[in-house]
């Protein structure tokens, strides 16, 4: 029998996805209980309930933690709670006055998901799934985000979002550790950004996603590759590079085995598209596009 907290609905049934018939208990994350083998954090559940999870025995539900979805900090940075949904992020971006705000909506739209997913899927869940095409990984890596991780004993550590994802489906997350939030620095939020995405299909998963960010303070340029690669690649140039310099830097950073290979695109195609999109972004942000 599945056990849930008093007056708490059974999330297994309510999500309308796959039943997790090995899960025996759902507990409220507000009431701390010792972590044990077979536990998993439950945010929106859009991934957990999308396929069998035979190793799971208990879900620790974060939905009632009461974390503000988005918080503007005194230094101008922006904190995004792990439980912030894609719909909440999109709504916030419409009235956000930072120069990089359009990038939020562009990355939200890269989900190509139904309104059901938008209203349940969370920023933290997308990061922790660590899938190459995860657009919240693209957004937070491109804007120099830092994730806050909390261990079971309450201790905290921080990692750059670009370094948090270490491979396809792999992340720097220890047993029982929770991704609490991701913070985007004020300086990155004031960058001028450019976004490019490619897919093999009109409504298909991203095969290559490239983001550029031009810093108005010092003229530096950051180029971030995701979806085409097994993990994010965030390259920073103190001054905008030439086309040849950009291509050489990308080829030097991304090895042959770093290009992702699945039914959404072969590595050779992903590399071609990533290099092409990166050059388009370089030309857009440096003003060379119309020359």
Automatic annotation (TrEMBL):
This is FAD-binding molybdopterin dehydrogenase. It comes from Streptomyces kronopolitis. Pfam families: FAD_binding_5. PANTHER family: XANTHINE DEHYDROGENASE FAD-BINDING SUBUNIT XDHB-RELATED, XANTHINE DEHYDROGENASE SUBUNIT C-RELATED. Coiled coil: none annotated. Residues 5-189 form the FAD-binding PCMH-type domain. SUPFAM superfamilies: FAD-binding/transporter-associated domain-like (SSF56176). InterPro entries: Diverse_Substr_Oxidored (IPR051312), FAD-bd_PCMH (IPR016166), FAD-bd_PCMH-like_sf (IPR036318), FAD-bd_PCMH_sub2 (IPR016169), Mopterin_DH_FAD-bd (IPR002346).
């Amino acid at each position: 029998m599945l056990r849930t907290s008093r007056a708490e609905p059974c999330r297994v049934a309510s999500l309308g996805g796959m039943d997790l018939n090995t899960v025996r208990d759902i507990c409220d994350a507000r009431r701390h209980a010792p972590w044990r083998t077979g536990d998993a954090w439950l945010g929106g559940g859009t991934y957990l309930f999308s396929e069998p999870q035979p190793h799971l025995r208990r879900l620790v539900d974060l939905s009632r933690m009461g974390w503000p979805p988005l918080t503007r900090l005194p230094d101008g940075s922006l904190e995004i709670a792990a439980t912030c949904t894609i719909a909440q992020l999109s709504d916030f971006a419409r009235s956000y006055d930072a120069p990089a705000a359009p990038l939020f909506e562009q990355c939200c739209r890269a989900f190509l998901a139904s309104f059901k997913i938008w209203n349940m899927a969370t920023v933290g869940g997308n990061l922790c799934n660590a899938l190459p095409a995860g657009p919240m990984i693209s957004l937070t890596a491109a804007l120099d985000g830092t994730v806050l991780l909390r261990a079971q004993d309450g201790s905290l550590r921080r990692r750059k979002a670009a370094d948090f994802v270490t491979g396809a489906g792999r992340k720097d997350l220890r047993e029982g550790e929770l991704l609490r939030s991701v913070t985007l620095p004020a300086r990155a939020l004031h960058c001028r950004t450019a976004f490019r995405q490619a897919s093999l299909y009109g409504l298909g998963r991203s095969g290559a996603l490239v983001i550029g960010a031009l810093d108005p303070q010092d003229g530096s340029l950051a180029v971030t590759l995701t979806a085409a690669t097994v993990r994010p690649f965030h390259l920073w140039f103190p001054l905008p590079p030439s086309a040849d310099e950009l291509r050489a830097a990308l080829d030097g950073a991304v090895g042959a085995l770093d290009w992702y290979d699945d039914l959404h695109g072969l590595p050779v195609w992903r590399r071609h598209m990533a290099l092409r999109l990166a050059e388009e972004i370089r030309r857009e942000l440096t003003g060379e596009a119309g020359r």
